[in-house]
Specification:
By secondary structure, this protein is an alpha/beta fold. It has two domains: 5-173, Peroxisomal Thiolase, Chain A, domain 1 (3-Layer(aba) Sandwich), CATH 3.40.47; 179-327, Thiolase/Chalcone synthase (Peroxisomal Thiolase, Chain A, domain 1), CATH 3.40.47.10. 30% of the residues lie in helices and 25% in strands. The strands form four sheets. Strands 1-7-6-4-5 form a five-stranded mixed sheet. Strands 8-13-12-11 form a four-stranded mixed sheet, sandwiched between helices. Bound molecules: oxa(dethia)-CoA. Oxa(dethia)-CoA (UT7) is lined by residues 31, 35, 39-40, 116, 155-156, 159, 222-223, 225-226, 229, 259-260, 263, 287, 315-316.
């Protein structure tokens, strides 16, 4: 019997209909398509516009599609974990709300929050349950309604973020050469002063003042985050290659977090990868935080062949960053 590894055996997404273009953003703040495209690489992003809908709305649709396409009975799911920095509410966990909406009644679960590295950190958590041998079907959901915490009066952040949700079925495999191979993950609190949402937690609960001062929105000092992200993502991706004696020829695709084309390009350069090995969809969806790597996997899933070596790399608030070495399983 081979080692038990965690494998993604199904992946589905929900993308909200409304497309917020750079041109529309230019009517809200002093910016333009040329600046956003050349500095970041985003053309448009999808936004969940309707009042009264949150991350669980998108997550539940993605999970229902997943249950259908993988012919999974909700009762078979043993655990559902949701990564989000934009939960429906502070509590209960969005994972519980999604489970309820999807009729997943035999599972337990919880939310995780690791900023834009959230998929990596959560997949690492899920793989430990799978490798224990006790879990056969875990649903991992990544979902964000970033538009709910974006200040559409702040030109330094409002063009960046988009909404969406992705659901993945994770199952054990003992087949050689596929599944979750390795991870390298990091946190460093040096980042907490550059990227945060001030109010709404226990430190600054909502008051008239916090609302008036627009403290319930994302704050980002772009330049320091950019600097750390370039070195963090490139370093950890190169470290993963060295650890496993991989050359650029061994890697089918880099699947990077989609925050900025220039950060992605710097990482790919350090790994010695040609453009055709770097998967990018930032122009269509913007930065969907921890959902961005799953959204790339979903978008490009028809490209992958069983056994393809993929490197997932991300950098986000905290700071959090890391890399996963994964071999596509179907
Ligand atoms: O996903 C989680 C982690 N986050 C990231 O990885 C994001 C990392 N940071 C970045 O991607 C980039 O720093 C940004 C895209 C956020 C900003 O790009 P930048 O090249 O670092 O711009 P900057 O902040 O240095 O600003 C350059 C100029 C400034 O004007 P002055 O001071 O030179 O006159 C800004 O005021 O661009 C101005 N600017 C804008 N101009 C037009 C900032 N935002 C805009 C805008 N439109 N939307």
């Amino acid at each position: 019997m081979g080692k038990i590894r965690a494998a993604i055996t199904g992946i589905e997404a929900y993308i909200p209909e409304y497309v917020l273009t750079n041109d529309e953003i230019s009517t809200m703040v002093d910016t333009n398509d040329e600046w956003i495209m050349s500095r970041v690489g985003i053309k448009e992003r999808h936004i969940l516009k309707e009042d009264g809908l949150g991350t669980s709305y998108m997550g539940a649709i993605a999970v229902n599609k997943l249950l259908e396409s993988t012919h999974t009975n909700p009762d078979e799911v043993q655990m559902l974990i949701c990564h989000t920095v934009t939960p429906d509410m502070q509590f209960p966990a969005t994972a519980n709300i999604i489970s309820d909406k999807c009729g997943i009644l035999n599972a337990w679960g919880f939310d995780t929050n690791a900023g834009c590295s959230g998929f990596l950190f959560t997949f690492e958590t899920v793989r430990r349950f799978i490798e224990s041998g006790e879990y056969k079907k875990i649903v991992l959901v990544c979902g964000e309604r970033m538009s709910g915490i974006v200040n559409y009066q702040d030109r330094t952040t409002c063009p960046l973020f988009g909404d969406g949700a992705v659901a993945m079925l994770i199952e054990p495999t003992e087949e050689e050469g596929i599944g979750f191979m390795d991870s390298i993950l990091h946190v460093d609190g040096v980042g907490r002063k550059y990227l945060y949402q001030t109010a709404g937690g226990s430190l600054y609960p909502a008051t008239e003042e916090t609302v008036k001062n627009r403290l319930h929105y994302i704050h980002q000092d772009g330049q320091p985050v950019f600097k750390y992200a370039v070195s963090g993502m490139a370093d950890v991706s190169e470290e993963m290659m060295k650890k496993h004696n991989l050359t650029s020829d061994d890697i089918a695709y880099l699947v990077p977090h989609q925050a900025n084309l220039r950060i992605i390009a710097a990482t790919a350069r350090r790994m010695g990868l040609s453009e055709d090995k770097v998967l990018i969809n930032i122009e269509k969806y913007g930065n969907t935080a921890g959902t961005s790597i799953p959204l790339v996997l979903w978008d490009f899933k028809n490209k992958f062949k069983k056994g393809d070596t993929l490197v997932f790399s991300a950098f986000g608030a905290g700071f959090t960053w890391g890399s996963i070495l994964y071999k596509w399983a179907y």
